């Protein structure tokens, strides 16, 4: 479903991604671990073309992201087509990023109506279903500021699902939450995993990664230095940096 090939990205002299390859099959969950600054967020942002890679390509469900093949090589797509592609790639941020001036329901229906041109009634029905799925049916009319961080993040997940994405990307979805609110968000993500949603999850929650991920990859200095089933990577890492990182976070 997701194919990342040879992606490089620098900011000035700082090399942030140094040739990343990653494949995520349909229905599979990949957890991305690694120290701060290793390029995890940049990788997610390159996948949905929020950042333009300097080199390398990304495809989702066989469709090249951000480019098309022209007669003289690759041409970048128009902003409109990129936005349309991006709407099939759900993104859940560390800090929720809900629209503060819209209700919970409006947060969820905004993009389906505005970007995907779905009928408002259909978008609202779907939003109601999604709110039930994340356990917030009673909050449809609330504004984000009246919700806890865990509730806001569950709304953000419902909002991402409303676009019926082919893949969901999570960037440390529980890092900004008080400890007692982490579980409710991980429960929702775990449910999605069990129902076959394709996901890439950057997280420091090691036991969660072990439980829900099909594959754990470990990033260090812009490269994936290790990749495998959770038990293999987490219990017997083959790279010394993975071992050092795990010793610190476990
Ligand atoms: P991670 O998510 O693993 O902590 P990031 O992908 O956020 O790592 O960042 C990797 C490195 O790139 C960091 O050193 C960060 O400061 C730098 N970086 C990220 N985004 C930018 C940017 N827009 N401009 C300059 N440097 C950036
Ligand atoms: Mg990050």
From TrEMBL:
GO function terms (MF aspect): ATP binding
UniProt-listed InterPro entries: AAA+_ATPase, ABC_ATPase_HisP-typ, ABC_transporter-like_ATP-bd, ABC_transporter-like_CS, MetN_ABC_transporter-like, P-loop_NTPase
Compartments where located: Cell membrane
Protein's membrane topology: Peripheral membrane protein
Keywords from the named record: Amino-acid transport, ATP-binding, Cell membrane, Membrane, Nucleotide-binding, Transport
Domain ABC transporter stretches: 2-246
Chief location of this protein within or outside the cell: membrane
Protein family according to the UniProt entry: Belongs to the ABC transporter superfamily.
Name of the protein this chain belongs to: Amino acid ABC transporter ATP-binding protein
Annotated source species: Nocardiopsis sediminis
Organism placement in taxonomy: Bacteria, Bacillati, Actinomycetota, Actinomycetes, Streptosporangiales
């Amino acid at each position: 479903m997701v194919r990342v090939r040879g992606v490089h990205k620098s900011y000035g002299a700082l090399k942030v991604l140094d040739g990343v390859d990653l494949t995520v099959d349909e229905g599979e969950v990949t957890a991305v671990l690694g120290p701060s600054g290793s390029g995890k967020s940049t990788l997610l942002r390159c996948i949905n073309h929020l950042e333009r890679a300097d080199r390398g390509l990304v495809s989702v469900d066989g469709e090249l992201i951000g480019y098309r093949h022209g007669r003289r090589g690759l041409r970048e797509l128009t902003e409109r087509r990129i936005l349309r592609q991006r709407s099939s790639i759900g993104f859940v941020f560390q800090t929720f990023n809900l629209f503060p001036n819209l209700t919970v329901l409006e947060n969820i229906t905004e993009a389906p109506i505005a970007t995907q041109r779905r009928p408002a009634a259909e978008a609202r029905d779907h939003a109601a279903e999604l709110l039930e799925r994340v356990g917030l049916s009673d909050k449809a009319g609330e504004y984000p500021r009246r919700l806890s961080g865990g509730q806001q993040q569950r709304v953000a997940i419902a909002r991402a699902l409303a676009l019926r994405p082919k893949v969901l990307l999570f960037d440390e979805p529980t890092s900004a939450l008080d400890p007692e609110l982490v579980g409710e968000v991980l429960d929702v993500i775990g449910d999605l995993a069990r129902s076959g949603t394709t996901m890439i999850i950057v997280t420091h929650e090691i036991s969660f990664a072990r439980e829900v991920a099909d594959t754990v990859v470990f990033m260090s200095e812009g490269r994936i230095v290790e990749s495998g089933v959770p038990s293999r990577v987490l219990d017997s890492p083959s790279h010394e940096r993975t071992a050092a990182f795990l010793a610190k976070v476990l």
